[in-house]
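Note to self: the last two entries modelled the partners one at a time, which told us nothing about the interface. This time every component goes in together.
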Amino acid sequence: MKRLYALAGAVMAVALCAAPGTASAQNRIFVGTVAGSDLDGLARRVAEVLAASDGARWIVENRPGAGGALSFEALKGAPADGATLLMAPSGALTLAPHTRGNLKYSMADVAPVSRVAAFDVAYIVSAKVPATTLKAYFDWVKQDSARAVFATPQFGGIPHMFGIKLGRAVGLPLDNAAYRGGGSQLITDVVGGHVLAASSGVAEWLREHQAGTVRILATSGVKRAPQLPNVPTFQELGYKDLTASIAYLLLAPAPTPKATVDAIAARVNKGLADPKLREALTAQGFVVDGTTAPATVAANLKAEHKLWGDMIKETGFKMPN
Amino acid sequence: MDLFSNLATGFGVALSLQNLAFALGGVFIGTLIGVLPGLGPVPAIAMLLPSIYTLDPTAALIMLAGVYYGAQYGGSTTAILINLPGESSSVVTAIDGYQMARQGRAGPALAVAGLGSFFAGCVGTLVLAGFAPALAGIAFAFGPAEYTALMLVGIVGAVVLASGSVIKAVGMVLLGLLLGQINTDALSGVERFSFGIPELTDGLGFVAVAMGLFGFGEIIGNLNQPPQSRDVFTRDVKNVWPSREDFRQAMPAVLRGTALGSVLGVLPGGGAILASFAAYTLEKRVSSTPERFGKGAIQGVAGPESANNAAAQTSFIPMLTLGIPPNPVMALMIGAMVVMGITPGPKVMTDNPDLFWGLIASMWIGNLMLIVLNLPFVGIWVKLLTLPYRFLFPSIVCFCVIGLYTLSNNNFDIYLAGLFAAIGFAFIKLRCEAGPLLLGMVLGPMLEENLRRTLLVARGDWSVLVTRPISCTLILLAAVMLLAALSPAVRQRRARAFGD
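The predicted structure of the combined assembly is written out below.
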């Protein structure tokens, strides 16, 4: 019996020693959410594209926790050899550093590889609201201050900031009712008319908008969202500064050699040009990118980082910790 | 009759060789992930998705649905055998199921859970087929105020779950509510009780806490007994199949559980978990021998298991009829439909009748496959319990730790389960039951969030909670339950039961 235990112990020891070695040889894409989110789904598509281009295995490793911060910390600790990447939303780099005081990562820790896809922020009202345009909606809100509430999928995210910005632009402070990570309760509450308006990513609301149970009044892009050709942008409605987008980015650790980053970017962006993949992702509500060079992605991120920084300073918004 | 011709179409689709194979594959994978502690249907489906995009949409959805309800089936197995609820809805099953296993009645418990699930699954599917459009509206009738009231009923009901003293049960619920406060506040972004540990900002993981308190705590508790009394549990396996008496007791519980689950399953969010322990509470209330609950009452297994399987089936209603996902699994299925060129929503029924009715028909076939797959396993599972402890315990711990790590690829969940193992052992020594604590921990944050949202939307006006009919009814129900739990008559009955 004792010998059996000793043998088992030896096997375990070998397995444990072998584990770190094999882990570093594995091509991985970290994702800061649990499996099943739209970010995770997109990362799995990118993993397929990469695997198809080099014949190697690419796995998606979920590192949820602390609003995605743990996935950035995991990337920081990973070797910068192009075998470990991270898929993350742009707000984690451009907005969170201004609002969250306890972040252990910054833009300096990552080298952007590709802006894979993006979507706009939409301002949505329940079909029970008797307003079909943004102007009519705000006139209606002005009649009764109890109507000045908008929901967001999450406290302190880009849609929340956008709602604050909108309220300031219109001169009508709006109260925020945040949900935990969005999901179905937010949608059913708005459709059911329990909460009358929401500022949220376009993708989740396309079906309800088409079914007529909610109305998307405007979107935050510079151009109209391709899935919503009849919905105006805020810019068209005269709010020049009201633009925002949520981009899903592929990132490498900062010390990764430029040639490696460029090579991965070329492979990913080539794969994203596949019309079938683009069509499938567009149906899900994304606007597929994959055309921007890594250096441009980085420059745009810096500009966006500054824009949010200015806005946060102006409004004095701060996460409580 | 339209329904029958539609169902005939559906069975025509579902009975094709290809779709039968995918249904079987789905329920088989589902059973496996249900039995493996820690691994749930959401990551499994997320990993399957890329490989099914190229499939025929009907076949793909039949398989994904099979994974989902198959996992509901499998989840009860570990709860009964080793006191390890794999997900929140099987916490309740563990209470009486594990006691039955300790008395050598693991076989009847598993068989009743399986047969109850089968019956509930079939009825749930029938409800889905016949009343989907009518029931879909329920989800919209529930706003923040209604959820607040529903959670209140749930938390009061959690007290009734415990078989011991009321004071201890109340204490455990309160402790659970406090543990639920460890998170980031949804409405204001404040990190609470996280002490700078990033993992704590998302709250304590349910699976890690449940594994620690129930599974590991129980193992330590067992090892704490002298070896002779430890073996009693494993050697004393009585009949594998339920007796006639078992069936007589379980039958009404299955019927009531199915009814509750069919209705609550339609609600987004906590539908399945509320259904399972609403069923337990109901069984305990209507039983003429409530003192047997918590000590291996077969109704305590049959009711909740039927409820959560019926809920699993009717949770397809908002997804199929409105395109609104009531839980993360349904959200993934909607994503899959979109990619395959189908627009989820009211039009699926008219535009893709083959898919809609084929999927529904496949659920009956899938449930039948599950019962055929699972019943022969009952004997094997029961045999597993007769393994000597020195083999059984290390393997359980090993599987659990692997499962815990896969939750978020982070050692933190393993440490957390370790900590709660010690707490769970302390609870066993103090004769406190962990079920109410877990429910308090799960329901507390939902109650708080919805209450604050209610007040925010109502501009601080508390009266909305009682002026809205559904929330008013639910609050009255909670008040009645609370009074009943505290009334002298019930206390006496409890005291007598406890004194035995």
